[in-house]
Description:
Number of strands: 0
Order of helices and strands: HHHHHHHHHH
Strand content: under 5%
Radius of gyration: 17 Å
Oligomer: single chain
Distance between the termini: 32 Å
Amino acid sequence: MSIETLGPYLLVAFVAGYFQTVTGFGLGMIVIGVTSALGIASVATVAAVVSLMTLVNSAVALPGKLQHVHWPAARAVIVALVPSILAGVLLLGYLSESASTLLRLALGAIIIYGGASLIMRPSRQGEPSGKSSFFVSGLLSGLCGGLFGIAGPPLIYQCYRQPFSLISIRNMLIMFFAISALMRTLFVGWQGGLDAQVLLLTAWGIPLIALATYLGRRFPPPLSARTMRRLVFLVLLGIGASLILPELGKLLA
């Protein structure tokens, strides 16, 4: 991998790690979206890298925070998350071989939806949703996580509807992403998908992810929560559009 390719990748990894720490999500969508748009590696390769990076980020950000998790809701999500992750990985293998355009369109749409779900936050409910609602969001997020290594959008919407504290929501999301990343990594490894390129990109990215996570915890940005959400939305909107528009141009041509 040339320095012209590795340099942008490392910059993207650092920025994504910081965003993940201060917002509770963003690492996967930023890394896989930008690297796919730039053609640094295949979607399958970057999804495997994102899963490994998420594990590193979670290992730094999550310790000592589990007491903030709302466990009745979390258990319902986890039960659904695991099998749907495996289904998503299998679907990715099929689409990578037979429908690459559809795969990139779906990735762009999910990234834009992730940004929109943050900026258009729903009104908080007076009472937590039922376990079945969390189960369904876990199924959808597991499918996204298996496909692209980004389990965020459905869970982001679901969690921000709840009458939980912001610290509880952020740490629940980080925990869900950690579980998704762990299960995906184990399954992909069992399939033989953790090849030299995946390990090389991960090895280069891990120190920057760890540093960005530390800086995010120690030095959060001096921005209001509303401004931060708008900034993340604009970043994800641009990434999603950069994936969708070229593929639509190919179809129209």
